[in-house]
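Q: 2,3-bisphosphoglycerate-dependent phosphoglycerate mutase, please. Structure only.
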Amino acid sequence: MSGTLVLVRHGQSEWNLKNLFTGWRDPGLTELGHEEAIDAGKRLKAKGLKFDIAYTSVLSRAQATLQHILEEVDQTGLETIRDQALNERDYGDLAGLNKDDARAKWGEEQVHIWRRSYDISPPGGESLRDTGARVWPYYLHEVQPHVLRGETVLVAAHGNSLRALIMALDGLTGEEIVAQELATGVPIIYKLNADSTVASKEVLEG
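A: Structure for 2,3-bisphosphoglycerate-dependent phosphoglycerate mutase:
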């Protein structure tokens, strides 16, 4: 029995727009971010998807994105689990800083290393490997069992928490996953085999 896993990065946030490191800080969506989330829901409805359960982080930008999607697919009453295991990577001392200001403070090369290395964390924060260390167990114990029962599961989360998941699903190396960009508000649809391997993957771009 093949189940379906849909991953969606939240729509553009106010801090994405301002080029700030966000992490566990909690800015809302921009007007464009709301539109991206609504559009994601319309695309999923056009595919005829109906969800059995949804997961999101404890951050409002992901929750608002999920809410827009559920409104568009006419499932506003769907059981939804919120957990900080799905939160964005914690950027520590970088959180709230403009990326250009961070480069001026620590140097372009050092900031690039923090942003684009797999296992080097910024001061007081998490590396992508650290993020995966909380995302993977949560996925394996809480999310994947629903998919393997043949259910259709929606996860609305963040660029790096979803990167950590995609790394495992697609069998990518740390170097390969940090080079991947995840567009805001673009659903990724996985069909999983009964042994949890990926049967197919579709990116629902506009």
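A: Brief note, in case it's useful. The chain has a mean pLDDT of 96.
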